[in-house]
């Protein structure tokens, strides 16, 4: 049951993260949004979600590459809501270039956002999850070609092994639930991906349809983009009580990518 719970979704002011936040608020979750964007647009999103679903929606613009900003965001969210019940690590960045041409600053930024930020949000959310005996951690953006996939999977499985529900008289409490899962997603047509298509076509000297077919969807047998709605619905299911026994799992939503 997600109603009345509090979720924090990193990178949720657009794309996949925004759709996940919308799905959670529709099920009665209070949500802490995180991400950059035009202040007036973010405020409009926050107010719309709060008004439409009768929940509390906050926004924190913490830079996920800065540990001190993450700590401040988590401390403020926990002070406001008493804890984080559902943590969705969605924020991420990527850059593609030959290793000898890869900018060092970009490399460091990728590690900070895709890996280190995940560690910090988990370590700061866990104490209140343990205290409440309920929590779900969702490793997002982990996919076959994503940097740091092995790290994210290892972290997910470690949390699954060490986050067992409290025992009550030898039987597991029905209300206790703590789980951690990682999702390997395929190519999703987010605003960020859409913006990259023309540049990729120009760099390759080809057409935009060819970029979609031969580059973005080359490894997906369905030859269709995974939709943000599909990813959000799956996230909602994993956070539900019906998925309480799914933990430590590496779950593909990838259009058959892993079967390719």
Descriptive account of the structure:
The protein is an alpha/beta fold and 260 residues long. The chain has 2 domains: 6-186 and 227-259, NAD(P)-binding Rossmann-like Domain (Rossmann fold), CATH 3.40.50.720; 189-225, no CATH class. It has helices spanning 15-26, 39-53, 67-81, 104-132, 149-162, 191-204, 208-216, 228-238, and strands at 6-9, 30-34, 57-60, 86-89, 134-139, 167-168, 171-172, 177-185, 250-253. A 7-stranded parallel β-sheet has the order 3-2-1-4-5-8-9, with helices on both faces. α1 crosses α8 (228-238), α3 (67-81) packs parallel to α4 (104-132) and α6 (191-204) crosses α7 (208-216). It is globular and about 55 Å long. The model is unreliable at 165-174 (pLDDT under 50).
CATH architecture of the largest domain: 3-Layer(aba) Sandwich
- List low-confidence stretches: 165-174
The tally of domains stands at 2
CA radius of gyration: 19 Å
Determine the CATH topology of the largest domain: Rossmann fold
Q: What is the overall silhouette?
A: globular
Distance between the termini: 35 Å
Overall number of strands: 9
Described by strand count, sense and barrel closure, the largest sheet is:
7 strands, parallel
What is the typical, i.e. mean, pLDDT? Answer: 86
Task: Note the total helix count.
Answer: 8
- The arrangement of helices and strands along the chain is EHEHEHEHEHEEEHHHE
User: What is the CATH superfamily of the largest domain?
Assistant: NAD(P)-binding Rossmann-like Domain
Strand content: 15-25%
Quaternary organisation: single chain
Helix content: 40-55%
CATH class of the largest domain: Alpha Beta
Category by helix and strand content: alpha/beta
